[in-house]
Amino acid sequence: MSYLLGIDSGLTVTKAVVYDEEGRPLGSAGAPSKQSIPRPRWLERDMDDLWVTAEGVIHQALDRAGVANGDVAAVGMSGHGDGMYLVDEEGRPARPGINSMDSRAVDVIARWQQEGVPDRALEVLGTDVWLALPATLIAWVRDNEPEAYARTRWNLACKDWIRYKLTGEIATDPTEASSGFTEMRSQDYRPEVFQVLGLEDFQDKVPPIVGCSEIAGRVTAGVAVATGLAEGTPVVTGAHDIDCCAVGIGTHAPGQLCAITGTWSINETVTTEPKVNPSWACRNFVTPGTWMAMSNSPASSANLEWFVRQLCAVEAAVAEQRGESPFAFAGPEVASVLDEESRVFFHPFIYGAPGTAPSAAAFVGVRGWHGRPHLLKALFEGIVFNHLGHIDALRSGFEVQDIRITGGGSRSDVWCQMYADALGVPVHVTDADESGALGAAMLAGVGAGTWGSLEEAAKATVRVAQTFEPNPERGERLQETYDTWKATVDALAPVSDRIG
After folding, report:
1. Whole domain around residue 8: which residue ranges?
2. 355 or 262: which carries more pLDDT confidence?
3. Can you give the pLDDT at residue 500?
């Protein structure tokens, strides 16, 4: 039997997982994706450290799986999208990497708004411009760090940097290329895209596009020693992590919706017809002639991580000493007050917000008789409501029959039930603990010939583990709570700049 390795470098953790041909994980490893905050609004990464981290988790995953290096048929790549990883002519970092939570480029966005760039970008690129779009950050570097801009030969995505270190080959895939640089309808680079962005001199610095399941290079001899992979192991191009997550839970066809409850609130559905709307971005999906309509914001279950790490440090430390999840206590506490009319509301905007929502988080309506369970319930609801706004936008433009959830929030039965109640439809959760890594491995398997297509890969590897049916009574209460929650968000919008 041959095996597949999926690598997923997210905003918080870089993971490697070895899978068999049924998508069963045989061995995995993960390590924090370290980041630095040298200034307010800046979130950067040491690119060399990121590669060392990837080397380590690959080796550990292979050791834990007990798989001989020559038995790995192919490696698949997944990583956080957007942000920016610039390299020079020698393949060295031109400056530290920037991740997609960075918000330094406010002046670029302000200038572009005055110049009417967002409307033109939406029509040509299929996406609005925003703070951590690669093009936005590149414009910032050009304006503020001209030396780094002059040194730049290639702009890579996070996973493209790791794949380059594995293979020595520069490439990107269609999903990452459409993060601001491809014309929506052709799904390819076009001069008018760079003209819209005012980056005409950057056209020769975007990497070649290679299909998501195509082999983009092979593991080099030096890297084979460091990682435990065999020299010459094929490495497919891979995809943006949110596309790999959709693949990994089987939402790769029209009519299906993938909700990822992680650092970001990701809500996406595949379409065979590109549609433009300010409420969603329309980017390339992993198969030619398909697009992913996505409505997203940096406002999901990372808010729970903040709450636990900052306000429940003792409980988290005790749980981790026992080998338990530091977040395990949250679900039971929420369940204990689930049917109470506590009237506490949480705006989950610790790291940012969609549209015109306030740019800071807030608890609203807290009274003296409220305790931690009420705050946690409000936090759970606020994150669900933020997802609901995105999903409603997508349901207004696309027919959706099958909704599946993945990410950290999907590990909580209480939370998943809350999603089902709020959405008013069944919500499915698959058995994939690391859907991004599995999606990457599935693309690798298609590239290596393990399966003839993505559909075959999904039939072999994707299994629905739980279905949460909506509770109409709770759904009715949540609808009223959602309306009030939206009213509180709107009420704070006028003072957003002052509080943010």
Report:
1. 3-245
2. 262
3. 59
Looking at the structure, tell me whether residues 322 and 238 fall in a common domain: no
Residue 165 has pLDDT above 70, yes or no: yes
Pair 323, 192 in one domain: no
> Domain of 9: which CATH number?
3.30.420.40
pTM of structure: 0.93
DSSP string over 207-225: PPB--TTSEEEE--HHHHH
Beta bridge partners of 93: 87
User: Of 201, 217, 245, which one is at a domain's C-terminal end?
Assistant: 245
Domain identity same for 182 and 82: yes
The one-letter amino acid code at 370 reads H
Residue appearing with tokens 């109470």: 340
Q: How many other β-carbons are positioned within 10 Å of the β-carbon of residue 35? A: 20
Domains identified in the chain, total number: 2
7, part of any domain:
yes
Residue 356: its pLDDT value, please? 66
Distance (Å, whole) CA 160 – CA 173: 9
Which residues on adjacent β-strands are paired with residue 347? 362
What percentage of the chain exceeds 70 in pLDDT? 99
Q: Where are the beta strands (DSSP E) in 164-280?
A: 182-183, 188-189, 215-218, 234-236, 239-240, 256-261, 265-271
**Region 442-467 average pLDDT:** 97
| Confidence band, pLDDT 50/70/90 cuts, at residue 263 | confident
pLDDT digits (tens, 9 = 90+) for 191-220: 999 999 999 999 999 999 999 999 999 999
45 lies in some domain: yes
Let me know the angle formed at the C-alpha of 186 by 402 and 242, rounded to the nearest 5 degrees. 35
The sign of the CA dihedral 277, 278, 280, 282 is positive
Claim to verify: residue 230 and residue 338 sit in the same structural domain: no
Q: Which two tokens stand for residue 272?
A: 């065979």
Strands 402-406 and 256-261: parallel
447 within a domain of the structure (yes/no): no
Confidence (pLDDT) at 233: 97
Range name among 23-32, 156-165, 322-331, 385-394 with the lowest pLDDT average: 322-331
One-letter amino acid identity for 117? V
**Which residues have C-beta within 8 Å of that of residue 481, sequence separation ≥ 6?**
345, 381, 385
DSSP-based three-state secondary structure for 262? coil
> Residues 69-114: pLDDT tens digits?
789 999 999 999 999 999 999 999 999 999 998 999 999 999 999 9
Task: Please count the helices (runs of H) and the strands (runs of E) in the chain.
Answer: 19, 22
CB atoms within 10 A of CB 452: 9
Residue 306 sits in the same domain as residue 419: yes
Six-digit token pair at 317?
Answer: 């430390």
Q: Which of 245, 267, 293 is the last residue of a domain?
A: 245
| String of DSSP letters for 33-81 | ---B-SSTT--EE-HHHHHHHHHHHHHHHHHHHT--GGGEEEEEEEE--
CA distances from 8 to 16, 22, 180, 439, 494 (A): 6, 19, 22, 9, 39
